[in-house]
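User: Could you go from structure to sequence for me? I need the amino acid at each position, not a summary. Structure tokens:
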């Protein structure tokens, strides 16, 4: 793969109000721009989360492998919204990187600072 990203869904489930856990029933890749030659490789993940109702908790975990190399060298960037259109009571973003990789964190309209832990040869930002 010369460039781009690969996303792997590691876990997706719903926690019902009675404490029952319900695993995702389907995880699929779709290609919304399949008819366009330049972007025909672009895909989206679709996760079917059963048992959704008001008040439940959904959890999903994924890994993102970045294979891009831009004009500034090997580069990875991500944007994570702690609040979006849907109401969110609690969310957590965890980034695990090799110890030798330097990162820059930019907070926008928040003063939240990550918790940083070192584990063997990697650093974990939560």
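Assistant: Here is the amino acid at each position, in order:
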């Amino acid at each position: 793969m010369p460039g781009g990203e690969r996303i792997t869904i590691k876990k997706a489930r719903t926690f019902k109000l009675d404490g029952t856990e319900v695993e995702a029933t389907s995880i699929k890749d779709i290609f919304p721009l399949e008819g366009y030659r330049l972007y025909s490789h672009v895909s989206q993940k679709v996760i079917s989360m059963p048992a959704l109702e008001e008040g439940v908790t959904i959890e999903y975990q994924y890994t993102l492998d970045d294979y891009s190399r831009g004009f500034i060298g090997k580069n990875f960037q991500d944007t994570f919204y702690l609040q979006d259109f849907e109401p969110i009571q609690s969310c957590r973003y965890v980034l695990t990187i090799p110890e030798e990789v330097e990162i820059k964190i930019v907070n926008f309209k928040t003063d939240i600072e990550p918790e940083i832990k070192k584990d063997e040869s990697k650093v974990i930002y939560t």
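One structural detail worth keeping in mind: Strands lie at 5-15, 21-23, 26-30, 44-48, 57-66, 69-70, 73-74, 95-98, 116-119, 122-125.
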